[in-house]
Design a protein that fits this description.
The complex is a heterodimer of chains A (about 180) and B (about 280). Helices cover about 25% and strands about 30% of the residues of chain A. Chain A has helices at about 15-20, 35-45, 90-95, 110-120, 130-135, 175-180, and strands at about 5, 25-35, 60-65, 100-105, 120-125, 135-145, 155-165. In chain A, strands 2-3-4-5-7 form a five-stranded mixed beta barrel. With about 280 residues, chain B is of the alpha/beta class. Chain B has eight helices and ten strands. In chain B, the strands form three sheets. Chain B has a four-stranded mixed beta sheet. Chain B has a four-stranded mixed beta sheet with strand order 6-9-7-8. In chain B, strands 1-3 form a two-stranded parallel sheet. The radius of gyration of chain B is 19 Å and the shape is globular. The chains are: A alpha/beta (about 180), B alpha/beta (about 280). At the A-B interface, helix 5 and helix 6 of A face helix 3 of B.
Chain lengths: ~180, ~280
């Protein structure tokens, strides 16, 4: 059964606590996009004591750098990118109030614990599902760093965006348990 | 002697780059469809079904299958009796990459300076490998290599005493470490032999070989089958969500090497292993 998650614009605590590692979910609502260059810019601003261009409290981030929109499209292809490249920025982003990240790939050890300690969840979208996920984006607005092109900080409004809960609030790590369950070596 | 104008390369590279990004190779799509039946995990089957649907929609609506159109890799096999006219061959290929990226609405994913992370004007937009062959034929392969999988690739210099068991373990371990990050189900390209750089190039050629073609040498084909079986027992499954289909294929290429050496490179390709080849 697919669980629906509404995020308008923040992720509510009840939903966040209810979902479990391995749950297939369908996201609708607002996501803040993040990329390597975006995360670095945000961290640089914070380190300089400047305010961020968007309040990240309670927000769900989506690690994505979309391809250019064709005429008539909201965005081009827009699948997730790998979370591992962002681990350096995770303590800062979670400290800024982020309550969830949608990306692809695995998180372990301290990186996974950082989510639990911050009361945040990690969801994996399907890598290489760019054409379909791009179509689930109903609106896209550049919030800051427009000069970064696909790495600009954007707000996406999505509908029926499929993902799977990987890190839940209760210590579950689905990539670890699923692999162990199917491993035959 | 056959004379060809380099503008033919610009046009062809641009066209193939767009086509490769809108339509994944038929052998991969077929393997993904078959995997929808073979995969034993339900979440894995659902994930594979999503992927097949993505590829059908991308082809029908002319959309990039993935936002990461990657680094464009061009393999150019040129007959030694071909003479190129009309300017720089390299610039013509680069112009084709730029043209295809723009006309196909592909993401500009290449940064000109890897350390400064800036792109000076005129920086190469892709990677070209040339090979001179006999005769007048020209064979062009255009591939888009996404970096989720490229980043999980590895190379190691073994010694002869390590032998096939160590080589096989290294391949399996590389896929195991890659886990969900490489966008499984993956295609594994393995290059064994040559020198440091030759092994890497062999691995690249291996990952770009159609996955329904086994290596012609029986022992190498047997190694491919053994590696595929071992990788699919790792439990990673589609997108690392657990299951029995972690790789669609393992392609191995071998080449003579030093009596003191055993170089091995593993190049991982995601399920969107975009490539297309033509004869000019």
């Amino acid at each position: 059964m697919t669980r629906l998650i509404e995020c308008r614009p923040t992720l509510d605590e009840t939903t966040s606590l209810a979902v479990r590692a391995g749950d297939a979910v369908s996201l609708s609502g607002d996501l803040v996009t993040i990329r390597d260059a975006t995360a670095k810019r945000l961290l640089d601003l914070a380190s300089a004591g400047l305010s961020l261009p968007i309040d990240l409290t309670g927000r769900l981030l989506y690690a994505v750098g979309p391809s250019p929109a064709k005429p008539g499209q909201v965005v081009g292809s827009a699948g997730p990118t790998t979370i591992e490249r962002f681990v350096k920025y995770l303590p800062f982003l979670l400290g800024a109030g982020v309550k969830g990240v949608v990306a692809k790939g695995e998180l372990h050890g301290d990186d996974a614990r950082a989510f639990q300690e911050a009361g945040a969840i990690y969801l994996a979208a399907i890598g290489g599902l760019g054409a379909l996920l791009g179509r689930s984006v109903e609106a896209a607005t550049v919030v800051a760093f427009g000069e970064l092109g696909p790495e600009a900080l954007m707000q996406f409004t999505v509908r029926d965006f499929p993902a799977v809960v990987i890190l839940d609030r209760h210590g579950g790590n689905f990539h670890e348990t699923a692999r162990a369950a199917w491993r035959r070596v | 002697m056959r004379s060809l104008d380099v503008s033919l390369l610009t046009e062809t590279v641009a066209r193939l780059l767009v086509e490769a990004n809108y339509r994944i190779p038929p052998d991969i799509l077929e393997a993904l469809r078959a995997a929808c039946d073979e995969e034993r995990s339900e979440l894995g089957r659902q994930t594979l079904a999503h992927l097949v649907r993505n590829y059908e929609v991308a082809a029908a609506e002319q959309l990039p299958v993935c936002q990461d159109s990657g680094v464009t890799v061009v393999l150019l096999e040129v007959g030694q009796d071909v003479h190129w006219t009309g300017g720089s061959l390299e610039y013509a290929i680069f112009a084709g990459i730029r043209q295809g990226t723009s006309s196909g609405y592909l993401r500009q994913s290449v940064v000109g300076d890897p350390l400064l992370r800036r792109t000076p004007a005129g920086a190469p937009p892709g990677v070209i490998h040339y090979e001179i062959v006999e005769g007048e034929a020209v064979r062009l392969t255009v591939a888009s290599k996404g970096f989720g999988a490229e980043n999980m690739s590895a190379l190691k210099m073994f010694v002869p005493a390590d032998g096939t068991p160590a080589v096989a373990q290294f391949v399996v371990d590389t896929v195991d470490r890659a886990g969900a990050n490489a966008c499984p189900p993956v295609i594994v390209g393995v290059g064994v032999g040559g020198t440091f750089e030759k092994a890497a190039l062999l691995a690249k050629k291996a990952v770009l070989r159609p996955i329904d073609q086994r290596h012609p040498a029986r022992d190498t084909a047997a190694l491919e089958a053994d590696l595929l079986d071992r990788i699919n027992r790792l439990g990673i499954g589609p997108q690392g969500l657990g299951g029995t289909v972690t790789a669609l294929a393992v392609n191995v290429e071998v080449y003579p090497t030093h009596i003191a050496g055993l170089p091995v490179a593993v190049n991982i390709g995601c399920h969107s292993n975009r490539r297309i080849s033509v004869e000019l």
